[in-house]
Design goal:
This protein is an alpha+beta fold and 300 residues long. It has helices spanning 2-24, 69-75, 135-150, 156-167, 195-207, 209-220, 227-246, 249-256, 261-264, 285-292; strands at 30-35, 40-48, 53-66, 81-93, 100-111, 117-129, 169-170, 175-176, 180-187.
Amino acid sequence: MKNKFYTYIQNLQDQICKGLEDIDGGTKFREDIWERPEGGGGRTRVIENGNVFEKGGVNISAVHGTLPDTMQKMFGVGEADFFACGLSLVIHPKNPMVPTVHANWRYFEMYDDNGNVINSWFGGGQDLTPYYLFEEDAKHFHQTCKNACDKHNSEFYPNYKKKCDEYFWNAHRFEARGIGGLFFDYLKATEQMSMENWFNFVSEVGNSFLQAYVPVVEKRKDLPYTDAQRTWQEIRRGRYVEFNLVHDKGTLFGLKTNGRIESILMSLPPHVQWVYDHHPEPGSEEEKLLKVLKEPIDWI
């Protein structure tokens, strides 16, 4: 399974990078191949200063070795070897009318002293972070997520949407990071779902990503915007940074397993502002966004 999934995310990385390069039209992804001293490595691809995308990364990695002490405590296990692979992406557009997007799909194994798999699971999801709310974009993104889920189980979309709303929650700000999407973790074999079934589901979601995001970009990338709207985008990006550095488990895992720091922090946008005690004008589009982020919404 680990070889099958790693092959899948290699191909998916190619597809997504090609799709994003096509819509940007001004620049290409830069590729870095890196190795992890303790075992494994990855292929980082970053796009910067394009026509549409200010900064973004579409990264894959496959790492293995002894599970670090901090991760042993997190999983409640003793010494164990592990393998983890996944694709992680974050795209920050220039135009504040275009939302930031994040997605990842991952697979994890743990082994006993004889190298036998004693635990394995899938995780991942995709979510949207707008700076200005276009309800039709939110509905499109969520409908695409639901369509992918419904091919496997009609309960997946409401369950994994709820988990997404709960996970991407900036508790210290009492607001959501964005308008959500899907989040799932610890997808293990059961009587109803084999690991092959879970692979089919996770790859279905991965294959839906471009369909969920690209139409939104095409619709908004050429809209006019003001300096004040750009400032709002940078203030909201600050909340994005706060979540990734304070709450995000993927960032924590990368830092605790001696991951490549440049790849881990590629999720951070290049231009951000923290304005003291900032509040948008009452009745403004900016305030409208904040109200939406205070509690989950059923977009479909």
